[in-house]
Every structure is written in C-alpha cells, then in structure tokens.
Amino acid sequence: MKVLILGAGQVGRTAAYHLAREPDNEVTVIDSNEAVLRELQSRIDVRTVAGNASYPQILEAAGIADADIIVALTSSDEVNMVACEIANALYRTPTKIARIRAPEYTSQEKLFADGALAVDVWISPEQLVTEYIERLIHNPGALQIVDFADGRVRLVGMLARKGGLLVGQQLRTLKDHMPNADARVAAIYRNSRFIEPDGETVVEEGDEIFFVAARDHIQRMMNEITRAEEKVRKVVIAGGGHIGFRLARLLEKHYHVKLIERDAERARRVSERLEGTIVLHGDAQDEELLIEENIDSTDVFAAVTNSEEANVLSAMLAKRLGARKVLALINRPSYGELMDNRSIDIAVSPQTVTIGSLLAHVRKGDVVRVHSLRRGSAEALEAVVHGDAQRSRVVGRSIEELDLPTGAVIVALVRSERVIIAHHNTRIEPEDHVIMFLSDRRQIDAVQRLFATE
Amino acid sequence: MLAVMNVLGALLALFSVYYLLPIATALIYGEQESLRVFGECAGLTLAVGALLMLCTSRFRAELKPRDGYLLVSLAWLSVTAAAALPMMLDAPQLSFTDAFFESMSGLTTTGSTVITGVDKLPYTVNLWRCALHWMGGMGIIVMAVAVLPLLGVGGMQRYRTEPGPVKDAKLTPRITETAKALWLVYVGLTAACFAALWLAGMTPFDAVCHAFTVMSLGGFSTHDASVAWFHSPTIEFVLMIFMLVAALNFSTHYVALRRGDFAAYRRDPEARWVFIWVGFSVVLLTAEIVHAGLYSTFTEAFRHVAFSTVAMATTTGLVSVDFSLWPIFASMWMLFLGCVASSTGSTGGGIKVFRGLIMIKQFFREIFVLVHPSAVAPLKIGGQVVSNQVVYSVLAFIFVYFMSVVILTFALLSTNMDFTSAMTATIASINNVGPGLGQVGPGTNYASLNDKQTWICTLAMFLGRVELFTFLILFSRSFWRK
After folding, report:
1. The pTM is what?
2. How many A/B residue pairs have CB atoms within 8 Å?
3. Residue A337: inside a domain, yes or no?
C-alpha cells in the first residue's frame, strides 16, 4: 500500500515508523524541515520530500498520483484540510485522513459528511489522549483501557495485586466468582513474557493481565484482579494546554479538579472557560505550591504539559509528596521504559493512543479498529467478517476449528449490538465483529489472510 | 455644550406631543378646565423647545459620549419641570416644590405622592401622573440600552462590549433599532396588562392608569388607598404577575416573545435571582407574619405578604395593606429587598440584581483566593467573565450608593425628622420604590414633608434613577475642563 504522510512532527514520525515496518507499505513523508527529514530517513526506511505539504507540485513529487492513502498530520488544521481537498480534486486519492485538532471544526458534523470536505476520516490526537486519560481516571486500577464496537466492549490492562479474588487461583474459577458477568482474560504477561491463558493458568501477583468485558462489567472484573480501589475524588492536572484544558472540562463534572498552568495568560484564558475547576497559576514542579494545594490528599495527579521532562519530574515529585496515583504524558518510548512502577504509575504515550486509529485504515480486510499495546509489540483489533462458509475460512466455524497463528486469541464477538464473550465452541457468523488479541504484531499478515474472503 | 442644548430643545418639543394623551382624556371626560391647562402647557413646552432649538441651531453637532452625562441630567430635569406645570395650574394646585416632587416621582417611576385625595382629582390629572410613570419607563429603557452602557456607569460598560445577560451580542445591530424593539415589547406588555386588569374587574380608566403604573414599576394609583381600594385578590394577583414581568430585563422579554425562545428566561442569570430573592422573602415573611398572628387565616397573611413583598422588591410601591403595622423586621426586609431585586434593563430601581450578584461573588472570590493564593479566579455571571474593571466600577457604585443614603438620611435628620422616617424615606426614594415607614409609611404619603424635606427626597429619587455617577460627574472639575 502506498502511503503519503504530510508532516514529520511527533505524530507523523510515529505513524511513519509504524507503517514502514510493515513490509507491504511504501511510505513517503513530506515536511518543510529538511533536517528533520534527513534524521528520519536515517532511522527508518521511507522516502522523504521537502516542501510545503499542501502544494500540488510537492504532492506530485511525493508520488500522490498513485498513492492509496494520504495522511495529513501537519500542525496546521487548515493545511491538512487543504491538502486533502487537493488530493481529492487533482488526484482522486481513495482514502484521505487529516489531523484536525480544533473542536470548532470537528464539532460540525456536516463538514465531514459526504460531499462536504474531502476528509474521509479526521483524527484529533488531543481528543483521543484526553478520552484515554479520562477512562483511566474513571476506572482506577487500570493501566490501559481501549474501546471496541463503539465502547460496548473494552479491553483493560492491569497489574494483579494481592486482594484480587482471582490472584492465586486458576482462571477457570472465574465463572464461580462472577456467574452472570461475561468477561475473559485475553493475555497474561509474567516478567514481560506472554503466557497464553487457559483454564488451568494460575494468576500470580505482579502479572500484567489483559481482559475483555462488556462495559458494564469492567469494574467487577477489575476487583477480581486487584483489591477494589478507593473512589477517585480529587484530581490535579499539571498543564493547561489542549489536553489539560479538555481533560479538566471532561472531569470537572464528576471530580474535584485543580489545574496548574505556568503561563499567566493561558491560566486566565483557561479559567474563564472552565466552570468548576480551580485554576492555579504556578509551576507544577514547585513543591511549595503542591503542598499548599494538599497534594497529599490527591487521588490522581495527571502531568500533561508539552514538556515530557516536566511531566516526569512533576509526577515523581507529586508521588513523593503523597499523591495516590500519578500519570504522566510521555512521548519517547525510552522514557516510559525507564519508569518502574514505583515512581510513576501510568505512562501515557500519545503516539500509542493515536496510532491505532491510523492503522485501522491501512490494514487489508475490513479492520475497523486497531489498538497498539505494550509499546507496539502487541495489538488488539476489531475486524468485520464477510462472506459465507464457501468463500471465507472463518464463517460458520467454531473458534477451536480456526487455524489461528500462535499468540492470536479471539476474545469476543459483537453480533448486531450484542456482546458475546468467545468460548472454544462459539460459532462465527457473517457480519460478526471479531475482537482479537495479538501478542505478536508480526502475525498480522497471517491473521489478515485468514479473514480474507476468496 | 450648546449642541446639548439643541438636542434638549428637540426633546422638549417631542415631549409636548405626549400631552395629547391627557388632552384626549380631558375631551373624553369633558373636563374643560383640564383641557385648557394641558393645552396651554403643551403649547408652552413646544414653544420653549422650539425656541431652544432655533437659538442653538448653529451649534448642531454630533454629540460626544461625554455630552451624554449632561444630556441625561438636563433632559431629566427639564422634562420634569415641564411635566410639573399642569399640576400647579390644574386641580391640586400644588406649589412648585410639590409639583416638581410629584413630577419627579412620576418620571423616575418612584410613585410617592404629596397629594392627599387623589380619588377626587380630575381624570386628566390622574392619567397624567400615571402616564408620567409610563414615559419615565420608556426613558429608563433607552438609558439602559443606549446611554449607561456607553458611559460605563457603575459597571454598566459590561453591557457595551460583552454580550448582555441574554447571550446575544446586541439584539439588533443599531442602538435605535434596539430601543424601538424594546419599546414595542414594553407597549405590548402594557396592553396585555391593561386587558388583564380590565378583565379582573377594574374600570377601563383604572386599568389604563394601573397598567402604566405597573409596567413602569412606578406606584401611583388613582386612589388614596392604592390597591387596597379594590378589595380584590384577583386584581392583586394580576398586578403581582405583571410587576414580576416588568422587573425582568426587557431584552430577555424581547428574545422570548419575538423569537419564541422561552429558554431565554432560564439563561438570564438575573431573572433567576429575581425569583429566588422574592420567593425566599415571601416564605420568610409569611412565616414571620403568621407567627405574629396578625391575620386570622394563613391565606390572608400569605396574600398580603406576597403582594407587599413583590410590590416593594420590584420597587413599584403599590400598597394593598398598611405593612408599617407589621413587625419592623418584615417591613425593613421588604424595603431593603428593593435595593437588589430588579434586573438591569427593567424599569425597576436600586442597586439591581447584577451589581448585587457581582458584590456577593467578589466576596466569595476574596475568600477563595485567601485559601488558594495561586488560584486564577475570574468572576463569572451566567458563565460569562466579568472583567475586574467592571467589578471595581460596581464596588465604587455600591460605595457611593450607601454614602448617598447616609448623607441624605443625615440631611433629613437635620430637618428634625425622626430616624425611621428619614432613613426609610431616603431608601424608598433612592431606590424609586415609594412608600417608606413612619411619617412616609404606606398608610400615609409625602404630603406631611416640609419644603426642605421634599427637595431632599426629590434629589434622592433623581440620583437613584440616573445611577448616581451620571449626575455626580457634573460636579467634578475635570469634567468641565476642556
């Protein structure tokens, strides 16, 4: 697949990296900064073109004429939209994806309806990250929560701790604990090694567990794995940028929210647009300020400034001063790995959160959602099954009859809005949404072949 | 300066047209004497206005915002003087002091009277008094949309640049169009009020006069006993409804009535507080009055408390019962409620809801900032940020307001008035309510005041109506220095 990426910023580089490592893809990156491009080319196998990303000449030079997908990820919403329009008008590019961060645009649904703007899909990294963090705060104890089938099914990653009902037990005992609730453990990582779970697997303390469940059963399943956590009441957000502001607005209805912003002018603007949040002007790394604002009784401290170093430091400081749980936005994967679970509880990587929504569009077959897990080594995806028993290798078969590659587990189905947790004898029907956990991303080709219709 | 005089002349000439209303009344009721007096007064006003216009026609020029202060004060005073004339010449034959007071009380929609025996006045004069209320109400609405925001008196600049209480930057793009739209609402509501009062059992004449009185939140009545004369709970109920309607911002009415957007009332933060304050007070005072055992039944107590509270809170001052006989707590409460219970852009007086709200929110903000020294805490009303400049203006306004109350009370005390009468007369006048307590209580009127006291109350009414600063600025030296 030929992919054109406009903009080699944070998101653009990550997209290029993830797409280029799949052998079928040919990736070209356009950016106006040649130094960045040179650096990028030296690390990953992509073609680069320097210039203004929305000029037809530059797009032409980058090979838009036979591109399958254009992904506009520059920092300007307007450039992204214009580039998609040009790709549509001059080159009839089949799929056009644009990053649009301003809610002023994205709130207008008609703009993105057929026949209006030539943007097939818009993504807003800020919004995705905000919603992701919101889910983590609503479900204390989870390290990662991702949605499938419009939120009807969720995949949750968390650490098993003492006090969880399932800890020290075989997985088969789950149905004794939760007879009515449907949930299933998708994967267990012990000392970072994948264990394919079956009924005999015994959950140990410290295991990293991924499970799926219908949205309403998430909380009960979490209690199986760790002691029920106290309800979150007080949240402190460090950073009043796009993410901090949106997060405060989402959270202020349910929690007692404080937001710390360093820039006086920005603090004023944010405070005018928020209703219940206490906006503080100051530095989130200022010990005095944190103590003054009772950091020791804070349930969640979320560091979401633009500077990841500041996020790491302020989150560590908050943790030391007594915040119950700290969360930091970290771009560089290596920083995330540096954190052991004692100093920062959750490291959120904007790229990992964002990349999934891009990947869904470059995959073959009808893949509607992809979530990148464990820093990109594992993946969870949702695909729609088409065809009939003759033309498809999955329709009409039960799960145990499928020739799944190792490390791939089908965990749930969504059949016309109904959530079905997968068992070995569950039969797959046409138009089912299949939710799958892939412990090894490299098996993606085998999976795609399996689901393809002939 | 002379350009202001030119506009003033035009205004007086225009005002003379308003005499057609009493002249028509005199014709209908065949009051020859009144017809002659009002005809002469109309001619005289027209002549003076035209003369003033002619003499200053060379200086005709676009007015500067600063001229607005002078124009408001001069217009108010000269129209008051012109309107006082018929009351000196016709039936009550008042002295200039009393006539000027009566006229000022009418135009500022205060409603305190120096006339005893209004029942016996000619129809024409009674109509004139109530029509002055109505005229004053129109003037107040124009002032609220066109003059005060431009001058930025007491935080009113908030309505200049920022969207008003209803989230519409301006109702129409031009101020004159806005004023016309609001007048239309005012006239429409007055007509509705007239119809309702007529149906409730008033004579058409009483219904017209009381509709004028109620929509402008004035307080003149065609009877000495005021509303008590009718002995009708239905009439009291209708009056209460329309008093509350008139205490809301007319821009909100405009949005609600003309565009069918009744959610406008819910979005208007002032409207909410009008009802909260009045509702709370009715409950509190009913409890107080029932406890005091003044009325035999709960229904009767509730009826009188509700009417009096609404009448005093909205600064109307119509009277259904002599509430000065109630415990001092109740009557004082109602009097002070008048300071803060009517909206900006309504015909009510006093500090107004929005200034009261800003003061309360500023108090909580002070406390909040003490607890969180680093907090950035903008003051918001109805989700909209109020700039510090406005907050300072409002605080200054409230300070000057209370200083005025203190000084005028002392002025009245110096004339050997008793304290209760002096203070309540001052508050009732500066809030444009009408009845106070004691010597000026709801059972009596302002007739017992001597000339000096009458002038002090006249000044108080005027000051309160033009929002203090508009007039006080004329006494600063920097205003006159070019």
Report:
1. 0.79
2. 33
3. yes
